[in-house]
Amino acid sequence: MSDDLRDLYQDLILDHGKSPRNFRVIEGANHEALGHNPLCGDKINLYASIDDAGVIRDVSFQGTGCAISVASASMMTEMLKGKTLQEAEKLFEYLHASCTGKNADEAGLDEDAVDRIKALSGVRDYPVRVKCATLAWHTLQAALKDKKNVSTE
């Protein structure tokens, strides 16, 4: 990865970390969960409104955490609005594989989502930070399965 691209990705993470998007409670959300990373203390409350057709109409979060954790949650909420549950699952799989250094299949994913996930995938070089980048995504998985809590431990 070029230095310019690495700088661009770092700027994207810092921007979302300092000014998170969709940082709010969704009144009447039909799915929610609390995610916790006990290693560093990150906590994410995730809220989602999903219609009967399985489309994510709205998704948001609140909580505290490091810049990577907050940025990942912020970018995730932007990526998932309007996506089906199947598309969300495919994005989760791509993010998880990218962040853990496994082969990630980006076939069928929109280019913007792939670029955002690539910005987060640098954590694979810092294993303790993988949990920061994936916390919001694991919390979404818990919310969709109607589990109220999830931990990265």
Summarize the structure.
Helices cover 48% and strands 18% of the residues. With 153 residues, it is an alpha+beta fold.
Number of strands: 4
Which percent bin holds the helix content?
A: 40-55%
Q: Architecture in CATH?
A: Alpha-Beta Complex
Number of domains: 1
CATH class, named Alpha Beta
**Secondary structure category:** alpha+beta
Low-confidence stretches: none
How is the main sheet built? 4 strands, mixed
Neighbour order of strands in the largest sheet: 3-2-1-4
How is the CATH topology named?
Sufe protein. Chain: A
- Could you tell me how far the N terminus lies from the C terminus, measured between alpha carbons in angstroms? 31 Å
Number of helices: 5
Shape type? globular
Mean pLDDT: 91
Q: N-to-C SSE series?
A: HEEEHHHHE
The rounded Rg comes to 14 Å
| Strand percentage | 15-25%
Report on the structure:
The protein has 153 residues and is α+β, with helices and mostly antiparallel strands. It has one domain (3-148): Sufe protein. Chain: A. The chain contains 5 helices and 4 strands; from the N terminus they run αβββααααβ. The chain has helices spanning 3-18, 67-80, 85-100, 111-120, 127-144, and strands spanning 31-37, 42-50, 56-64, 149-151. It has a 4-stranded mixed β-sheet with strand order 3-2-1-4, covered by helices on one side. Strand 1 (31-37) and strand 2 form a beta hairpin. Helix 1 (3-18) packs across helix 2 (67-80), helix 1 (3-18) packs across helix 4 (111-120) and helix 3 runs antiparallel to helix 5 (127-144). The protein is globular. The chain starts with a helix and ends with a strand.
